Amino acid sequence: MTGIAPRSIIAAVLGGQVDMNPPPRDMHRDLVWWHVMFEGGHNIVTVADPGNLGTDPSVQELTDLLVPAPIRTVERIGWRIVNGFVVAPLPIDPVLGLVVPDEDEEHVSGPAATDGVPLTRLSVGEPYPNRLPWQDSAAHLSIQAQGVDFILPLRQPTESEVHAFGKGDAEFAILPTDRFVLWLYRFTNPKKSGNPAGAGPGLPWSDTPWEFHRQTTPRPALPGAPGTTFVMQLTLVDADTNIVRALRTIAPSVEFADAVRSAITRQAGQPNETLRAGAEIQGLYARHPNSADLLPLAEARFEALRNGSSR
Predict the structure, then answer these.
(1) Distance (Å, rounded) from C-alpha 97 to C-alpha 100?
(2) The whole model's pTM is what?
């Protein structure tokens, strides 16, 4: 290791979107210092070698090419060390970014919580632990101090839908009221892609209401502290088989996180009036039958991009 500080570089490049806990297993010592947990998986922050780095690239040149790549991808294609950085010829698509086979992914079983209590522990390809009364494409939300569990059941999701959910652009918006918060969401693939799984349109705008007084186990709590983000664990479940098809963790913008906390506080101060809430939800749907039509009413919105950034 040269005089560079990998952990400081990772924090500067990826910010609060990563967890730099110890690696999950033994690996080459070259890789250990560059290990991160990113979007629910174990990754090595790697310089994507464009083939023209030269003999002595600067720290800034190397830093500009850093991307989180699955450990197995780096181990499979090989790497070299350049001025302390892990450098590998990663398969970068000009539109999608890093494209790797699903078998390279090593997913964490659940994101780390701020108070040491994990959200639901899950693995892709394994059954979801609780067989809920799934309604196709209607998301379930559980809002806790540790973060937000967002579970989307789909009947026989296509590879394009799985790709959009797990690796595409994820967009969220909320419409708060006194008795419910309407969550709007969509997951999209790029219009042009060299990856067949990413060639479809993904999942269009949809919505689901969340009511403070209907969430009983666990009881709802404010996720995170004011002025901070929180973890959202996104889970795609095949509604027919109950198998987890995709996992992802994202961190919403601080503005969106604060809006969510404000909406929860607003509901918590109201009496439990689920019948009235139901009538108001149905009235809203009658006036706006399409989810996309509700977007102008949203009070907060954010997008988690496929490259790991947000806006």
Answers:
(1) 10
(2) 0.65
